[in-house]
Amino acid sequence: MTPVTGPGATVLDAPAPAAAAAGHVLHTGELHYSLTDPALTSMTLLSEIAVRHPDALSFAAGLPFEGHYETSALPRYLETYTRHLSQERGLTPEQVTRTLFQYGPTKGIINDLLARHLMIDEGLTVDPDAIVVTSGCQEAMILVLRALRRDARDVVFAAAPTYVGFTGASRLVDMTVRQVRETAHGLDPDDLEAQIRMARADGLNPRACYVIPDFANPSGATMPVDVRRRLLRIAEEEGILLLEDNPYSMFHDGGGTRPPTIKSLDAAGRVVYFGSFSKTAFPGARIGYVVADQRIAEGGRFADQLVKIKSMLTLNTSTLAQAAIGGLLIEHGCSTEQASARAAEVYRRNGRALLDGLQERFGGPDSRVRWNTPTGGMFVVLTVPFRADEAALQRSARDFGVLWTPMYHFYAGAGGLNQLRLSFSVLTPEEIGVGLDRLAAFVAQRTA
Amino acid sequence: MTPVTGPGATVLDAPAPAAAAAGHVLHTGELHYSLTDPALTSMTLLSEIAVRHPDALSFAAGLPFEGHYETSALPRYLETYTRHLSQERGLTPEQVTRTLFQYGPTKGIINDLLARHLMIDEGLTVDPDAIVVTSGCQEAMILVLRALRRDARDVVFAAAPTYVGFTGASRLVDMTVRQVRETAHGLDPDDLEAQIRMARADGLNPRACYVIPDFANPSGATMPVDVRRRLLRIAEEEGILLLEDNPYSMFHDGGGTRPPTIKSLDAAGRVVYFGSFSKTAFPGARIGYVVADQRIAEGGRFADQLVKIKSMLTLNTSTLAQAAIGGLLIEHGCSTEQASARAAEVYRRNGRALLDGLQERFGGPDSRVRWNTPTGGMFVVLTVPFRADEAALQRSARDFGVLWTPMYHFYAGAGGLNQLRLSFSVLTPEEIGVGLDRLAAFVAQRTA
């Protein structure tokens, strides 16, 4: 008997060194197929390239601007939220402590503030009880996909290209994703109809279509109002849901108008709405949410079904993290537009710098390089006359010191091979200039 | 065109009220089967009964004691962790801010502190890189089950009764769970061998066995060292993993010795180890972790595979929540035994009060009520000569003002119908006395 620990009971037996526990060997072939799927492995590969070239200028990272983060704000957010609990919601000190420390309600503790935010920023009237707060928007996608995937015939649709996190989430619950063509106006409704027909002909059961209508990741495209309305009509006619993901609508170019969310046009209850605070507040909190107000025939709402899944996935979202986001919201009148105004200004400035810089370097009449001109967001897509894959990226990083994201990952391998995504969110205009010079040199070499 | 928002761009079109969006109706039959499975619905049912009887004394809630939580400690934990980052790990102020606010590494940011904790409290030598920090231990279970579930033939084993969160997690990834008999010494190795044989005969592929060796939830049973060693031998012979869940080992009765973790006896790398801070720190953080140091033939470790799944489930665990737990650990020399010493004392005192109280009320020679005598943890199991189901619980709550948990939920419906779980973690000895008087009156009526 060898005493091991200090304060408490002696642990019986001298433990064998657990370092030796590397004896057993598993094979990936014994594991879930998603683990060898590009949707789950491509991002790892890309970040490995980034890690190998720490000094390269990066148009790759889709991170929010971090220049306005202040460590000292965190205790203040907590204090603001704590005061809200006691003063606005009338909780006793014991109840406040319990709210912050104890297991919390699976639906969340800041649903009232989220409903206020949705009214203020998006003109949406949402019952707080129809919201589920999640450990980042990624968990929200998992909840909905898990709920909708009943058997192998279920299928969802998404634009090609689309956010790789949606494809990856689908893989985790064995949900088939079929691709829909994308135009300059986002996902193409005509092709969605065609794809739904083809899926039915294949014996599949169409369940939902995933869309990022505002400044999509990765394409930067924004969907006009008429396309949004058309999607709603298709959803109703075809009996599917629309999964509307809205992380970027606050980052419009500031000029004039922006289209309403699809959710706010949705009189028939076809839209499940995903929200995220990773871009409008900060990603470290990992706070997202889903609005799922569809009625369930057996009682309650779709949100109540999602809550059952969440109770077995993460029990509830960190109350501490919710409190921080709650405090931040309160300090900005529950407006994420207000909370992220300074970051939005950075993205506008950078977006202009990038588009101007592209015009300067690739705008000549003989240029074989093209790009789109998003009206907001964080991304621009460049089309080049050569294969923009990992090998090209490695060369670009090693020989020219500039990183970007190959687009074909966002097509699940079926397209985009001569496109690359440029993210401009964490750079300065000067860095954008230097990066574009390097990119131009790389392109010149590849097209020489 | 109706302006809707304040600070930024005008939103085009007057949005329709989203409250009308309750138009579409979904049927649970269209959703994943887990949503109608008792593993996901029983806890909802039980908490509804609890909510209907707010004044009842509750032996039902498996919550940690909250009398030592202090709201003022939260900013201090963050500060302690921030200081650790700058002073011990040498981060610049910008790096500290980035660590707290930005997307973080999927594996986690407090892995070094967790490895120190495992050495100090459990005598375990663990490479921080073999740890994945999770959004509560529940997510850790999902990661491992998702990785191991390749097709419908895969099966895992768990004691009957077992933690309903494990059963629920299995349902979410369509993993079959087969039950293994439990004795006073925890999961029965003889029956595990028999069940593995039967599973193979049924064409199934045994992958792992889930165990809570210390003060199991719900049985309270603790597994002796020889049983732990026997399980390791079985795991090696049968080519399965052991999933060791250890939320309660710090809450031993304080007398003498406690057995080592199975992980610390594991020279062959058969144990995947789950840790939780919900009981030793506080549940609101939602911080758990998994140690997965098994080698993968194609490179890296099992932890690296789990990280790929996590990157599509929650991206990374809230860095804010990790920072709070990190600070709490640092303030207690990375010992959870030290961090939870006062709570452990409460559980010891309450456990004694409960066992003494049961003896007083049900210890007579003619008593038809029996119970076990756990040497720690939070739970005691009572066996009664009547059906202890929801109907009985409702009567107990309504007519006698006392709540408990029907055990049959923990048997996935196959057993435990005349058992009930008594949790003593959040009560005072006086409340335990009053609760037992009420329980005795209820039992007397049911057996009259």
Report on this model:
The structure is a homodimer of 448-residue chains. Chain A has 448 residues and is an alpha/beta fold. Chain A folds into 2 domains: 34-61 and 341-447, Alpha-Beta Complex (Aspartate Aminotransferase, domain 1), CATH 3.90.1150; 73-339, Aspartate Aminotransferase, domain 2 (3-Layer(aba) Sandwich). Helices cover 40% and strands 16% of the residues of chain A. Chain A contains 14 helices and 18 strands. The first copy, chain A, has helices at 38-52, 73-88, 93-101, 111-122, 137-148, 164-172, 189-201, 225-238, 302-310, 319-331, 336-339, 341-362, 390-400, 429-447; strands at residues 10-11, 25-26, 57-58, 131-135, 154-160, 176-183, 186-187, 205-211, 241-245, 257-258, 271-276, 287-291, 295-296, 370-371, 379-383, 402-403, 405-406, 419-423. Chain A has an 8-stranded mixed sheet with strand order 4-12-11-9-8-5-6-7, with helices on both faces. Chain A has a 4-stranded antiparallel sheet with strand order 14-15-18-17, with helices on one face. In chain A, strands 3-16 form a two-stranded parallel ribbon. In chain A, helix 6 links the parallel strand 5 and strand 6 (176-183). In chain A, helix 2 crosses helix 10 and helix 13 (390-400) crosses helix 14. The longest helix of chain A is centred in the C-terminal third of the chain and has 22 residues, at 341-362. The radius of gyration of chain A is 24 Å and the shape is globular. The interface between A and B is large, with 139 and 139 residues.
